[in-house]
Design brief:
Length: about 325
């Protein structure tokens, strides 16, 4: 009788033992890091998570999700990268160029998916725009600068001097500066640079452009975007209009922006991560570029910065922020 009584319990124990490893094997892990927290990069992070859930990978169920911000510090980015590599996740998502460079430098084996990187080739993340054949792929937020300058001319038709505040140490910004130096003279304009190596330098860099520039153009430089309110104050005080490439900056005080929807960019990145979790190799996946562009305008900010947007431009916007 004892043997008969204990047999079912033994069978249950065996069944549990068989199921537990299967459950562990089914769970995937994704580690996400960003160089700093600001609306655009936060939107990328949230988009990645939403896309993974839509693809069947949900945090707390079959996905272990962890996120860390480097708070704008490249040294911290390197520490996070080393920590994540040591955790051996199924994929690391690195948001923005400095974080992506830190992660790529830290591993040649763990799959890495970068996002919100303007030029991954110039940043030495991948050898070309074709499949890397290594452990890295991702999604770029590369923008067509000729379209950006077309918008700038519509906002400030008589502009001749374009000011730009940027971090010279950020690869994506250095690429934009180089291209603008080649492009602007063809359009009858010149570039006036103002370096902001740290986010606390943004205000003084912007003030240095007063009297030297007719308009300030801001790219997706992380120091600048994280301190955009300081730039807006200078723009309002000095009647110096701000034209951005980050649509989230329009709600914060830019006059206009023709840019990428960073939530969409995050979802695009998340779908790529899901492909890797399902078995594809990152080296076989070609780097993607977001092609969905949106025009945002802020007529109220324009008035505060000394200009008036044309009715035609306002009517053509995907979003008008008052």
């Amino acid at each position: 009788m004892k043997k008969l009584a204990w047999a079912p319990l033994g069978a249950v124990a065996l069944a549990i033992a068989a199921i537990a490893p299967a459950q562990a094997a089914d769970q995937k892990s994704v580690a996400v890091t960003a160089i700093v927290e600001h609306p655009a990069l936060d939107a990328v992070r949230d988009g990645v998570k939403a896309a993974l859930k839509a693809e069947g990978f949900e945090d707390g169920k079959n996905l272990k999700w962890q996120y860390q911000s480097a708070q704008g510090n490249p040294g911290t980015a390197a520490q996070i990268a080393r920590k994540f590599v040591g955790d051996k996740p199924d994929a690391i998502v690195a948001i923005a160029t400095p974080s992506a460079q830190a992660v790529v430098a830290a591993t040649k084996t763990v799959p890495v998916v970068f996002s919100a990187v303007t030029d991954p080739v110039a940043a030495k993340l991948v050898p070309s725009w074709e499949p890397s054949k290594n452990n890295v792929t991702g999604v770029s937020d590369l923008l067509a600068l000729d379209k950006q300058m077309e918008l700038l001319k519509k906002v400030v038709p008589n502009a001749k001097r374009v000011g730009m505040v940027y971090n010279p140490g950020e690869a994506n910004s250095a690429v934009v500066v180089k291209e603008l130096k080649e492009l602007l003279p063809k359009l009858g304009m010149t570039l006036v640079e103002a370096a902001a190596p740290r986010s606390v330098d943004v205000s003084s860099a912007a003030r240095s452009l007063v009297g030297k520039a007719d308009v300030i153009y801001t790219n997706t430089d992380n120091n600048v975007v994280s301190s955009y309110e300081a730039l807006v104050k200078v723009g309002q005080d000095s009647k110096l209009p701000l034209v951005a490439s980050d649509t989230d900056s329009v709600a914060r005080g830019a006059v206009a922006a023709l840019g990428i929807n960073y939530r969409d960019l995050g979802e695009q990145t998340g779908r790529m991560v899901a492909r890797i979790l399902k078995g594809e190799k990152p080296g076989d996946i070609k780097t993607e570029v977001s092609t969905k562009m949106e025009l945002y305008v802020n007529p109220g900010a324009a008035e505060k910065q000394g200009i008036k947007l044309s009715d035609e431009l306002v009517k053509s916007a995907a979003k008008v922020i008052q």
